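Here's what a typical entry looks like (P-type Zn(2+) transporter):
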Amino acid sequence: MEECCSTKPKPKHTHDHEGHDHNHEHSHDTGNKTVFQMFLPAIVSFILLLIGIALDHIIKPQWFTGIIRFIWYLAAYIPVGLPVLKEAFESIKNGDVFSEFFLMGIATVGAFSIGEYPEGVAVMLFYSVGEVFQGMAVTRARTNIKLLLDQRPDEVTILKDGKAETVKAEKVNIGEIIQLKSGEKLGLDGELLSETASFNTAALTGESKPDTKMKGDSVWAGMINLNTVSQIKVTAAYQDSKLSKILELVQNATAQKAPTELFIRKFAKIYTPIVVFLAIGITFLPYFFVEGYQFRDWLYRALVFLVISCPCALVISIPLGYFGGIGAGSRNGILFKGSNFLDVLANIQHVVMDKTGTLTEGVFKVQEIQFNNDFNKDEILKLINALESKSSHPVATAIHEYVGEIDHSIPLENIEEIAGRGLKANINDKELLVGNLKLMDQFNIKYNIDSENIVYTLIAVAYDKKFVGYLTIADTVKQDAQSAINRLKALNVKITMLSGDKVSVVKHVAAQLGIPNAYGDLLPEDKVNKVKEIKAGKESVAFVGDGVNDAPVVALSDVGIAMGGLGSDATIETADVVIQDDMPGKIPMAINIGKQTRKIVWQNITLAFTIKAAVLILGAGGLATMWEAVFADVGVALLAILNAVRIQRMIF
């Protein structure tokens, strides 16, 4: 039996989940502004710039010179330049001197100082337009995730004294009854009071396949009622619903930075000051080596060099790529606790799986009962049922469903849970043991059965120091378990199944699914040792289980994946990745999302570095103007953003 009849501890996950503070973050909150409002400063600047260029090169009036020409271009510069200069000043105040705002500020102010007014305005104009597009992309990514998850209605219909009344969802109290019509979306978590109801759970799991619930089952905010009018008793406040927790989890996921993301930020902090000093060198060093040195020409080259060097494309497009990966996961019912886990999953070489509840349904049914004739079968079953009621393990549920109502008058004393073996209690000074054969061995109970010939999970029973017999319990393999294993193999990922269940059952399931490495009869410490063996081979390991159990294994693995996030609040808090609908097919999907995210991020890094390096060399040699510099900065940033948002449209 999988950790037979045990209720294991629910510790906090021990992975390093600490966030990373940065002195400066891009502020791309577009607030409630319309698209026109966001682009208005750029539109004003663009019109004034076009008129200025026309006056310079086409109309050429005599009055458009000197101070008037300077004021005209300054008026074109202010709408787009002032916010950037303000950001540069704020960054310097916060200790981040060499920000991209600072680079753009000195480059454009420098252009004005040598009389290159149109180019100074153009650089800032295109930079500002790029910033608006970046802000829109980030806002859209956030909105997409919010829409995917936070689809609760603002109002719900509750029943008061037999009358239907519409109220705000956040004002509904625990214990009140919601009336949910066909086609309506549930606003709060609750317990189904109707005999049966069918729900679309796509908002929570990414699966649109109807899910039939029975009376007493839990239902969650975001589910859509598909058939008759149903009644639901509210069990959690609006802000405490699973959907609220999931939404908060995903929206906070970007706090966990991926190593690539952290590297780029650290790189930018070193790279940017180096570029500033190189620009100073480009301005002054040629004086000592170049005949006919012209300060203005070399200053212009240095300013072009500064514009090109702006790390905006990297600083924005890379986090956006990871955010897109998190969004893609959410759309498919997979929650990543941070972008760092996308990177870890992309490199996973070995997936270690629990059996029960991961590859099998975790819904056990009693198959047969073999008790010694010296014992009253019904009486023993009542005792077993009473003891198992103290456990939350699926085996306990199976026994309860088979035996029926629990007799609470049975005087259970000294109840003890023995990890990986089973349960023990005293009844009228007689010892009752229910668990696996290891439990029988531990208490020196002699038995005469050959467990190797019994394929199903075996639950041995002893009472008053005598072996009573055993029950067998069977579980069924999940519908998509086979395709999940096949897809993992196609990704060249090794697979191992670890279980507390008996070896014959584990081997049977492994053979059925084609899993090459499978181990049964394992205690929690045995699972830890197996994972340590795998990690000793320098392989990155993902452990897949229920998230709240097997804490040592989850802590030891590189990433912990929890199955059945809807079933447990603790699961959502503990795991690194939560698969909301229990489907093992989402494991290879999560790995694939990680791989595609990493691919897009590295495409952006390569694109930005290649183009910037080429234009930097041209700029230093005087072969690139401010216009090429604008493309190397803003153009590359926009291309990288367009590439980053692709992942949200991919099918995995």
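The first helix runs from residue 35 to 59.

More examples are in the samples folder.
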